[in-house]
Every structure is written in C-alpha cells, then in structure tokens.
From TrEMBL:
Annotated protein name in UniProt: Putative dehydrogenase
GO MF: nucleotide binding
GFO/IDH/MocA-like oxidoreductase domain span: 148-229
Cited PANTHER family: BILIVERDIN REDUCTASE A, BLR3664 PROTEIN
SUPFAM superfamilies attached to this UniProt entry: Glyceraldehyde-3-phosphate dehydrogenase-like, C-terminal domain (SSF55347), NAD(P)-binding Rossmann-fold domains (SSF51735)
Record-linked Pfam families: GFO_IDH_MocA, GFO_IDH_MocA_C3
Domain of life from the UniProt record: Bacteria
Domain Gfo/Idh/MocA-like oxidoreductase N-terminal: start-end pairs: 3-121
C-alpha cells in the first residue's frame, strides 16, 4: 500500500513535513497547493507531484489519502471541512483554529465524517513523553511548569498578535497541550502579559507572558514565555512535572527523571524521530485510538491559550468550563 499525501501550504512547515514524509518508503507526495504560485513551483520541483493555487482543485484532482494543512489557523476550519467531506484523512498544524467556536466546529466535523485527524502537537507522540508518563505512573502530579524563551518570530503573521494570537496561543500551546496530556484538564486560568522589552513597531505583540493554571485534579501549573531573547539558549523550552519524590523534565531533545538518592536518568531523543512517522503508521493501520492529538483534545488546549489571552486583557481569573461553553467573541484575544 502506498499512502498518498497532498500538502496545502508550501511554506516553512509544509516543506519540513514534506522532507520528513519523503523519507518514509510507502508514502508519496502527489501535490501541493499554495496561494503563491512561485511557492508551489519550488515545492513540486523539490518533492514532486502536481501543483495548484487552489487547494480545493488539488484535492479533488488528486484524491489523496491524507491532506496536510500547514496554513494559518484562521484557514483550517474550511480546509479540513472540505477534506473530511471527501473522506480524506487530515493532518492540521497547530493551532487548530483561531477561536473556541471554530475549534469546536472542527472537532465536530472530523467526528461526523469519521476520518483520521491529528493536530501537530508532536510532543504528545514523542517517545520522551512516554518516558515521562512511565516515571509518573500511579503518582498524581502536583506541580507543572513550562517555559519557552524565544526571539521575534520571523514570519510577519505570527509576529503580529492580531493575526498570530500571541506566543501563548501560537507557540507555547505545545507546552499547555503536553501539560494537559500528563495531568488532565485545566479548570482555571489567570495570566499577566507584558510588552516592556521590544517597541510596538518592531513587535506588535506581547513580548512576555506568565500564566497560572489550576488543574481539575488539584495540581498547580504555570507557563512562562518570552519573545525578547534569541535562539541558541540551552534548554530554552520544556516542561517540569513534580510528583511525590520524582521530578520529570521533558522537551523534544531529552527527558530527565530525578529521584532522591540516585543519579538522574536521562533519555535522549531517538535519532530521526518525527510526528509524520507516527501519523503515517496510524493511517497505514487505520487506527483511530492511536491518535493522541485529536481535534477534540486540541480544541481544549486552544481554549486554555485563549482563556489566558482573555485573562491577561481583562485581569480576571477565567473558569475554563464557562469559557468553553460561552466563549467571548473578542478580537483582542484571538487572531483574525
């Protein structure tokens, strides 16, 4: 069996996934779509397949097994709806959607049509996350702490909070999603954001964020992030999870388990591992229970990020259940 894939969005992430998919023997890229004709030409010259500036035309013409949507969050609902209605399995980059309403609608579409769908939360699939889960087995987490120290985003639409949604929404959502995977649902959110370091004309966005999370199981969590720094800082992102007599520190490079009286146990990432290998295995086996980053789970993670934005703007503690049930329609907290 050959798995055929069409890539929608021929930019940085689309090309990264294409390179990883090309290394899987039974996967063939049949085409790419992008509104920029020159990007499509460059993509197909490197990875093969046919091209189009209209993803609808491409998907109807190629009828792939899987569509990869590597596009801004505001485009995802229409795109995955089009694919799901045609029985095409879906990989969609995070964030799933720009609002709770759209993310919930996306989950309902996927469930209604029964296609396989994963959102690009690769930390859920990482073997290092399995190391963390095994170390915490039977021990309720009591504290979770995530951090992401980064620089001004190179892409203009991510750089601007009006279109990118801010770092907690666009980037640190990985941390929030991993924390939910390890500790369960979040119940309350409180956040403070800053823009002290970088002028508005250079970064039309918050440049630092501090978020406090209350988990339904009683655990306390926090996420700290900034765009004020620079690449190359060792350990610039990760999540710590504390339970009784054990601390787990995990990112995509390694997992470290600390226990009293013994040396730390370090596990390095498996060379060459990536989320595309995991999803192609799921497609190959037609194995819905193996999907860890479902659209429904991802909608919950998006809700936490948007609740943090809302809290930072309103200076209120947000009850997440109320927020998800009656989400505000407020352009100051979500991308356009």
């Amino acid at each position: 069996m050959t798995i055929t894939v069409a890539v929608v969005g021929a930019g940085r992430m689309g090309r990264l996934h294409a390179k990883q998919l090309n290394d899987i023997p039974d996967v063939r890229i049949v085409g790419a779509a992008d509104v920029r004709a020159e990007a499509v030409e460059e993509f197909t010259a490197e990875f093969g397949g046919t091209g189009s500036v209209d993803y609808r035309e491409l998907l109807d013409r190629t009828s792939p097994d899987v569509a990869y949507f590597c596009t801004p969050a505001g485009e995802h609902l229409d795109q995955l709806t089009f694919a799901a209605e045609r029985g095409i399995n879906v990989f969609v980059e995070k964030p799933l959607a720009p609002s709770v309403t759209a993310a919930t609608a996306a989950a309902e579409i996927i469930e209604r049509h029964g296609v396989l769908c994963t959102v690009g939360y690769q930390w859920r699939y990482s073997p290092l996350t399995d190391v963390a889960r095994d170390a915490l087995a039977g021990l309720p987490p009591t504290m979770l702490a995530g951090w992401w120290y980064w620089t001004i985003p190179p892409l203009p639409w991510i750089r601007d909070r009006r279109t990118g949604g801010g770092q907690i929404f666009e980037q640190a959502t990985h941390l929030i999603d991993l924390m939910r995977f390890l500790a369960g649902d979040v119940s309350t959110v409180f956040a403070a954001y800053a823009d002290n370091a970088i002028p508005e004309e250079e970064l039309p966005n918050w440049d630092a964020s501090a978020v406090t999370l209350g988990f339904a199981n009683g655990a306390a969590g926090s996420v700290h992030s900034t765009y004020a720094l620079f690449p190359g800082i060792p350990g610039s992102n990760g999540v710590d999870v504390a339970a009784r007599e054990v601390l787990v520190r995990v990112n995509l490079a390694k997992a470290t388990v600390f226990r009293r009286g013994v040396p730390p146990e370090e596990t390095a990432a498996r060379a060459g591992w990536n989320i595309d290998q995991e999803f192609m295995t799921i497609v190959r086996r037609n194995d819905p229970p193996a999907v860890r980053a479902t659209a429904r789970e991802s909608a919950q993670s998006i809700g936490v990020s948007l609740a943090a934005n809302y809290s930072a703007v309103t200076k209120q503690v947000v009850d997440l259940r109320d927020f998800m049930t009656n989400p505000p329609d407020d352009a100051t907290i979500m991308p356009l």
